[in-house]
Design goal:
By secondary structure, this protein is of the alpha+beta class. The protein is built from 6 helices and 5 strands. Bound molecules: guanosine-5'-monophosphate. Guanosine-5'-monophosphate (5GP) binds next to strand 2. This is HIT domain-containing protein.
């Protein structure tokens, strides 16, 4: 069995952990249920929620590629509605520049997204320019504050998926802050 196959299977199982894992049992927390019941996302913007079989990784990749085709259109994303509070989210931290909220499809006991309130061309990290240095540093520091607030500052991971081949699905830069369990390396 190849490493690539193993990685694909592990990745898919990880993404399905909302129903399988001990930290995220059949009943998700109230905050998550509230968000899930409040609105529906187009699959294009949240492909991981549609995963229901091991081979679905291919669907996720296809959805990520589809999302990437509109990345530079300037169209608002679901995160704009979260920033404007049009769509509810479970906020962990907020200041004038960034917003941090629990991911709707957590991949670990703690899974928080940290986003800039102003996208300013930062659809993905791959579009970063020198003018973005301040906000990029601010986002990293905010991630540490989030880790403290969530009680995982002793061990956590910050992930940025940039572009379709990294399976980015929302084109508004975001940092995933993950922790609360033993994280494995390398990631899938
Ligand atoms: P990406 O795949 O682009 O790196 O990560 C996007 C993340 O946004 C995913 O982990 C997905 O679960 C999360 N997400 C997508 N839509 C929503 C939403 O409406 N609310 C919340 N809280 N998270 C979302």
């Amino acid at each position: 069995m190849s490493c690539r196959y193993m990685a694909a299977v592990s990745s898919s199982l990880l993404r399905r952990s909302i129903t399988l894992s001990p930290f995220n049992p059949l009943k998700p927390p109230n905050s998550i249920r509230l968000i899930q019941s409040s609105f529906q996302l187009p699959v294009r913007q949240c492909p991981r929620r549609a995963m229901s079989r091991v081979g679905a990784t291919h669907d996720e990749e296809a959805a990520a590629r589809a999302a990437a085709t509109e990345a530079d259109s300037g169209a608002p994303t679901i995160f704009d509605k979260i920033i404007s509070k049009e769509i509810p989210s479970s906020i962990v931290y907020e200041d004038d520049k960034v917003l941090a909220f629990h991911d709707i499809n957590p991949q670990a006991p703690v899974h928080v997204l940290v986003i800039p309130k102003l996208r300013d061309g930062l659809t993905e990290l791959g579009k970063a320019e020198p003018r973005h240095e301040d906000i990029l540093g601010h986002l990293l520091h905010a991630s540490k504050i989030v880790a403290e607030k969530e009680g995982i500052v002793d061990g956590f991971r910050v992930v940025i998926n940039s572009g379709a081949s990294a399976c980015q699905s929302v084109y508004h830069l975001h940092l995933h802050v993950l922790g609360g369990r033993q994280l494995k390396w390398p990631p899938g």
